[in-house]
Amino acid sequence: MGTETPNLFIVGAAKSATTTIYIHLQKHEDIFFSEVKEPKYLSRPYKEFPMRGPGDDVSEKEEISSKEVYFDLFSNRKEKYLGEASVDYLYYYHTAKEIHNLNPKAKIIICIRNPVDRAYSAYWHLKNDEREALSFEDALKEEENRIKNNYEFIWHYKNAGLYYEQVKAYIETFGKENVHILMQEEISQDIKGSINNILEFLGLGKITFEIDNIKNNPSGIPKSKIINKFVRNQNQFKNLLKFIVPKSFRQKVKAKILSKNYTKTTMDQKIRSQLTRYYTDDIKELEHLINKDLSKWYQL
């Protein structure tokens, strides 16, 4: 194992404030995150290709499939922590073994969220990318077929929220002392406190950089489909900006524009109740595993 081997992983869950944590942690002088936020290289042994959902071919092309290219993401870096943030590593939880084989001393960060809200947010993520054509209710009914037909994990709205086995795999592989778990709800309420807790977990003291409360990767109904499409999708103008505008500033501007462009939508109460019952047993097992009160997640 070389000195440029990654040793910090934000493994998920998707739509649970992982981007917010990634953006703020990379401001620390002792932390480097790869320019490619989600290489998804280490989860590849647990996925089938090609993926067959609408737009999955684009996501697949963005994955790093070469060992050499993966390690090049961290070449010539001297920071104490070299990290990446592939959020499918939690869903494909056997990836914990791949990370451990790569670096048994790695630190793991897991962000989780009320799985009902997470599912709805993932749905709107694909809806706003113009990939999801069904209603939320119909999409949930179609999920098993989509899984069988090898749709990318982001389409697995219900399945991705079954956290117990996912989190357990990382705790058993790395030990509780090397796994830091955050709730998206706590991050939203106190981002500074959440970042300070991570830095303490990493042995890096307290925050010495600016913290903002901008919501990254927001979801909801876009007021302007034109703005939504321009900001979310790749285009020549955005590709040009990569060479002249710092990444942190681009991320902040994107988050501000999307936050103002979205109107929050609420889930049908009948569907919320059904999903809550679906997740209750799994949440209760997770509560015991991480010794944290999650009763608000399964209250009807």
From TrEMBL:
Residue ranges annotated for the Sulfotransferase domain, each copy included: 7-215
Keywords recorded for this protein, A-Z: Glycoprotein, Transferase
Signal peptide interval: none
Keyword Glycoprotein: yes
SUPFAM superfamilies found in the cross-reference section: P-loop containing nucleoside triphosphate hydrolases
One Pfam family this sequence matches: Sulfotransfer_1
Keyword Glycoprotein: yes
Gene3D superfamilies (UniProt xref): P-loop containing nucleotide triphosphate hydrolases
Name of the protein in its database record: Sulfotransferase domain-containing protein
